[in-house]
Specification:
It is a single chain. It contains 2 helices and 22 strands. It is mainly β. The protein is globular and about 50 Å long. The chain binds 6-O-phosphono-beta-D-tagatofuranose (TA6).
């Protein structure tokens, strides 16, 4: 079903986009509308607030996306976990420190514009953010569409269309938070020999030697890379595969102790059980979109068992 609507009630959302046994909308504890997605081989929840995929769990698997027990679920504040949409800038605003970190998309109210069920039981939900939905001080003529496909895997495709008459430059991230057994006991493969900028050392550029392991705060923007990342987690006996298209940066982040304590919406000890591997176009990988043109960044997340020949 394709219909552009905005600020619908829960009943209207269910009437327009609900699908029996597959897509239903309800009011979450904090009062925000949320879509419950039940595909044939996986479940997810998606908030129009921020265009935010909050949870994903393939049938028979442990939850894949992580959510802080202290996350806000209220308008004007980002949700801490799942897949925040960082857009139209990643990190601090390049010139105006008054503007919110990671852009305005993740704290804006998106509009549900479509829902589908495919022949093999995958569920698609489409949401849109447009210029008229955001603070006029921050906006320019754009359309931002998030298309989420839920099944055994989850994919999120973020399409920016430039509706103006001048080129538009953006940085962005699908800032995915993953559940791990113990971040000290996992490794990230797929970024070996890739150059990264170390956000904890004045963006010093270094080359990744071997898999990434974690023993302290880690905040790295790997640039000029289109590779798949694998989070190898012996504790949960699984590998989370994060593949992507239309993204040239991958951000790897764990706040560790001190930064966790500084974040009010993040439990002091929660860092042990989470890891961010983010599908981005950040720093020098900014994207310029010509008038009338569009750009799509897409992440696909899937889980598999650990093969016997995987290290650790
Ligand atoms: O993606 C890593 C990062 O840029 C870190 O520097 C940290 O700030 C994280 O994003 C979370 O940012 P937030 O604004 O959501 O607290």
């Amino acid at each position: 079903m394709e219909e552009s609507v905005s600020a619908l009630t829960i009943d209207q959302l269910n009437e327009t986009f609900g699908v029996e046994g597959r897509v239903s909308f309800k009011s979450s504890d904090g009062g925000l509308p949320v879509a419950d997605i039940t595909a044939s081989e996986g479940q997810a929840t998606i908030y129009p607030h921020g265009g935010h995929v909050a949870t994903f769990q393939p049938t028979g698997e442990d939850p894949v996306l992580w959510m802080s027990g202290k996350s806000h679920f209220e308008s004007g504040k980002p949700i801490r976990g799942g897949i925040p949409v960082c857009w139209p800038w990643f990190g601090p605003h390049p010139t105006d420190s008054e503007k919110p970190a990671h852009g305005f998309a993740r704290t804006s109210e998106w509009t549900v514009v479509g829902s589908d069920v495919t022949s093999d039981g995958e569920v698609v939900l489409r949401l849109e953010l447009r210029q008229e939905d955001v603070n006029p001080a921050w906006s320019f003529p754009f359309s931002l569409i998030l298309e989420v496909t839920v099944g055994r895997s989850l994919s999120g495709a973020l399409t920016t269309r430039n509706l103006g008459d001048a080129p538009m430059s953006i940085t962005e991230a699908l800032h995915s938070y993953f559940t791990v057994s113990d971040v000290s006991n996992v490794e990230v493969q797929g970024l070996e020999n890739t150059i990264y900028e170390d956000a904890l050392d004045d963006d010093a550029r270094r080359t990744q030697q071997g898999p990434i392991r974690f023993a302290a705060e880690t905040d790295r923007v790997y640039v000029d890379t289109e590779g798949e990342c694998r989070i190898v987690d012996p504790g949960l006996n699984r590998v989370i595969r994060v593949s992507k298209q239309g993204s040239r940066s991958t951000v790897v982040w764990n706040p560790w102790t001190d930064k966790s304590i500084r974040m009010p919406d993040f439990g002091d000890d929660e860092f042990h059980g989470m890891l961010c591997v983010e599908t981005a176009n950040a720093r020098g990988d900014a994207v310029t979109i010509q008038p009338g043109q569009s750009h799509r960044a897409r992440v696909t997340i899937r889980v598999e068992g650990i093969r016997r020949d995987s290290p650790r």
